[in-house]
Amino acid sequence: MFRIKLPVAAVASLAVTAGLLTACSSEDTSDTINVGFVAPLSSSPSAFQDPALAAKVAEKAVNDQGGINGKKLNVIVYDTKGQPANVVAGARKLVNEDNVVAFIGGNSNDGLAEIGKRAGVVNWFPMGCAAADVANELSMIAALNCAGAGQGTYLGGTRFKPRKAVYVAFAGNTPYIENAKLGYRNAGVDDVAVVEVPPETTDFAPIIAQVKAQNPDVWGGMIYTPEKLTSLIRAAIDQNLRIPLVLSNNVMEDATIELVSQSGIPNSVALEKGEDAEQFPTWKQYEEQLAKYDPEGEIKTPHDGSVTTDWLAVWTFAQEARKLDVVNADTFREHTTGLTDFQTDVLHPIDFTITDGPVLTAPRQANLWAFPGHIAGGKIVVDSKEPYSAFLKTPVS
Question: Considering the entire predicted model, what is its pTM?
């Protein structure tokens, strides 16, 4: 169940070797290995620069270690400014002019997935629950944001055993809402009220009033951007809402962590990754790279799920590419589409050949695991190195 595998030959057939879109060939003699990062970095309500900054941190670290088989890694960042037409233009440029080996992070909305599939270019670690990602055999998904909703509520439901819960989400965000309900349900919590927030909201006091009116035992949720989540929690504290707070770290800035820590409110946090430098060597590398390559702290949300995933995307891309004698779009696609046991210590092992899964509204999901945690002492605390799964209903350590 939930394990439909796509033959490697079928994936390879997606690549177009002639026509408008062609990937980098094995005869490429460039001294750089290009990857493309496509995201809205400006001029959009969803604009968020930290993921791209984190990707560039990993790029610098890779190149300081000698690059990839003697070649320099080049992360080409393309700002879509939130415009679908720019996504298509950027993807075409990256494929046709820059000969990218892969797209890194971001997501495949607005035509990027189709361009990538036609060119046979893998999207390594895309984020979100975009239909273009979850239906794309060339999307190597390490973490789905909407899965985090279910992991968070399952952890909170298991830990606090509430009779009634409230989940806060953006209006119409069905993937998060349905997976949040599933997580609570799998933890034995059937009474779940949803409070939907219009995306343009800036005053969160009325939202918290709606939460309190439900008289829940626990509450929590996910709204974007990280600053808005902080504002939501601040409004809760201002209204003396002291019941346990149930979160995942999909969207979380340092200000959120500090605010929750200072409040002393009981809380749980589902972690997509093992965020502890003492327990997880890869997380130690992340923190060391931030200190070295971002000493001024331009990255404001180093614990945000999309930020850490895009750093990890570049870092692990280099590790996988170094295993290849020749690195181009064809060889990287052939390598990654056959990975049944991708491993990095901050994630549960992933079978990238799985093209179906139990995450609601998302037909492709390989990583069904998270780490239990909470916020205390001004930081995120990983409670156990043993991951759990809301979707497989495993015990929580």
Answer: 0.86
